[in-house]
Amino acid sequence: MSTLPAPPEWRRLGSSDIAISSLAWGMWRLAENGRTAGEAARLVHAALDAGITLLDTADIYGFDGEGGFGDAEALLGEVLAAEPALRERMVLASKGGIMPPLPYDQSAEYLSGVIDASLRRMRVETIDLYQIHRPDILAHPQEVARTLEDAVAAGKIRSIGVSNFTQAQTEALAHFLATPLVATQPEISPLRIDCFENGELDQAMRLGLTPLAWSPLGGGRLLSPESARDKAVAAELDRIAAEQNVSRSVAAYGWLMAHPAGIVPIIGSQSAERIAEGAQALSMHWTRQDWYAVLVAARGERLP
Ligand code: NAP
């Protein structure tokens, strides 16, 4: 049985000179449950100590509809203020362009303002990867490109990515950017497989974008599957996980990482133990048979 290549411990972020870990940690849920800066610091350490150096946040994380905009970034800012040396150990990714309930704004005025606001909240001088969170249909990609390139030139951001963009939107922004786009962040998981066959990952490979997978466990749904299809996907992952002595979630990360586009799963857990456990995915090995068995379960029908 042929085995797929193992994921590397480090990759380059797109065509940039930024080295990233093959797994990322996401801070969407960081500012929940009254988490203190001390508790948040413990999670940051857990990720970094496990070799997970790409940390992903966004300006709307922490938004609960009651004015909590920016809470996750601000909490990370507290962690970094208490321990500035942590900044050197991480590749910091954030996003902007959604201002609920507006909802999307990528005009030059708005976007340049929110980049500055993110820098202030996180108390950093530069963001290594700045991503447009969701496309603003009313913003011309040429204007968005100019705003982002001005921010690169000013040293406020080091590289540019997109999230939740259609392929045409990605292509249009890339066309107007003189600096290459380095990343795309769609939802990808064993329960969300659209991009394997709709051309998104093919486009990422063609343009040299690193795909960052958001909600790699389906937001947790993979751990408590309800539909027959979701249960079948979980059962396939469990079979392979048992053979390799890892958990279902680790098998899910490993399955994504085995794809040739170099998918980087963004671990969403806010448990230090479960974040660290994610790194076990690096030592998994996948046969084509096992990889396709998970895909077939997710499709809910045989391949032609
Ligand atoms: P996920 O990994 O699919 O789901 C994480 C959730 O599953 C957590 O609530 C976690 O709870 C739970 N979980 C239960 N059992 C678990 C286990 N054994 N191992 C790990 N987690 C387990 O990811 P996500 O939180 O939905 O999203 C991950 C990241 O993607 C976010 O932090 C954010 O950076 C990014 N994201 C981006 C977008 C976008 O539009 N660009 C949208 C959504 C998310 P515990 O914390 O208790 O472990």
From TrEMBL:
<dbReference type="InterPro" id="IPR020471">
    <property type="entry name" value="AKR"/>
</dbReference>
<feature type="domain" description="NADP-dependent oxidoreductase">
    <location>
        <begin position="23"/>
        <end position="291"/>
    </location>
</feature>
<protein>
    <submittedName>
        <fullName>Aldo/keto reductase</fullName>
    </submittedName>
</protein>
<dbReference type="InterPro" id="IPR018170">
    <property type="entry name" value="Aldo/ket_reductase_CS"/>
</dbReference>
<dbReference type="Pfam" id="PF00248">
    <property type="entry name" value="Aldo_ket_red"/>
</dbReference>
<dbReference type="InterPro" id="IPR023210">
    <property type="entry name" value="NADP_OxRdtase_dom"/>
</dbReference>
<dbReference type="InterPro" id="IPR036812">
    <property type="entry name" value="NAD(P)_OxRdtase_dom_sf"/>
</dbReference>
<dbReference type="InterPro" id="IPR050523">
    <property type="entry name" value="AKR_Detox_Biosynth"/>
</dbReference>
